[in-house]
Amino acid sequence: MTHPPENRPAARGFASDNQASVHPDVLAALAEVNTGHQPAYGDDAVTGRLRAMVRRHFGDRAEVYPVFNGTGANVVSLQAMSERWSSVVCPESAHINTDECGAAEKLAGLKLVTVPAPDGKLTPGLVERYATGFGNVQRRQPAVVSITQSTELGTVYTAEETAAVAAAAHERGLTVHMDGARIANAAASLGVPLRALTTDAGVDVLSFGGTKNGLLLGEAIVVLNPDAVRGVSYLRKSSMQLASKMRYVSAQLVALLDGDLWLRNAAHANAMARRLEAAARAVPGVEVTRPVQANTVFAVVPKDVAERLRERFAFYTWDETTGEVRWVCSFDTTERDVAAFAAALAAEMPG
Question: Residue 235 CB: number of other CB atoms within 10 A?
Fold first, then answer.
């Protein structure tokens, strides 16, 4: 995946929802808690409030551990669910495999068993095929199945698909981790509550995403099944993911989860992606290559067209060999942004 030039002037683009602004409600929440002193390391009242909210969304057994970023959430979660001799079954497109600089291998000592999945999704059959070697001392022992919601390819697991994968994993004694960096977009796409895609579907541990959905920084490990983990608190500290002034991370997550901000932000991003898809399909010569189920559009355009467009709008080339590009919409993407990009795309495409 090639990266846009670093010297581009600030502009609204479609490179990543990580590049979006911070939602005003989140900034207001930070200002609100920025008074007086509070206990450190998660003993503050704000984090206590977050715990109650997480149980409301995910069930009475849910436990929450705020962290700084998504890689930290994934690595701590996988460590807590495994041993040093364990392996993790995941799609080859999974973020833990492609975009976390080997953190799971380096910090957790895990082996990732990567599964070809053209749509980014595991199935019970793929779990059965790739979770092998049980009891063989020569091999890493399968311990965890990790899925991503929504996937790196923009697809969404239905609740039923997730439940089927979880059942296949649990039948083999494996636990299930979900990288939920964009779980809000998946829930908004399907019109279901967060727990329908997680707790009720058999997921054991969730990396809950916030940064891609309007936060300044901050994600959370949500343990849905406490029996599936051990030592999360210690692993979070030893993995450098324990915030001393945790109220500032927790306050952002509270702002997201207290009402429906998480859903409004995600639903808007999804709607802008559908608008962008329709506009791109209307341009002769542009091929939309994957289903648009959340907030990401994949398309093939000529390389020279992509290069010229990137002079005005940031976005990534996903596959250099095919010319496939990725356009991501955010909570702050506007209809005007989409229209301006679509007009530029139409102008640049060869007649």
Answer: 22
Helix/strand/coil percent split, the chain, to 5: 40, 15, 40
pTM exceeding the 0.90 threshold for the entire prediction: yes
Coil, helix or strand at residue 196: helix
Cα separation, 63 vs 51, in Å, equals 7
Could you give the CA distance from residue 303 to residue 309 in angstroms, rounded to a whole number? 10
pLDDT tens for 216-252 read 999 999 999 999 999 999 999 999 999 999 999 999 9
* Per-residue pLDDT reduced to its tens digit, 90-146: 999 999 999 999 999 999 999 999 999 999 999 999 999 999 999 999 999 999 999
Relative to beta strand 86-91, strand 111-115 is parallel
Contact between residue 13 and residue 313 where contact means Cβ atoms under 8 Å apart? yes
Q: b/e string for 44-80 if b means 16 or more Cβ within 10 A?
A: bebbebbbebbeebbeeebbbbbbbbbbbbbbbbbbb
Rg (CA), the chain: 20
Query: What tens digit of pLDDT does each residue of 169-201 get?
Result: 999 999 999 999 999 999 999 999 999 999 999
Nearby residues of 43 by Cβ (< 8 Å), 6 or more positions away: none
Helix (H), strand (E), coil (C) string for 71-131: HHHHHHHHHHCCCCCEEEEEECCCHHHHCCCCHHHHHHCCEEEEECCCCCCCCHHHHHHHC
* Block residue for tokens 């609740």: 159
DSSP annotation of 311: T
Using the structure block, give the residue that is written with the tokens 């959370």.
220
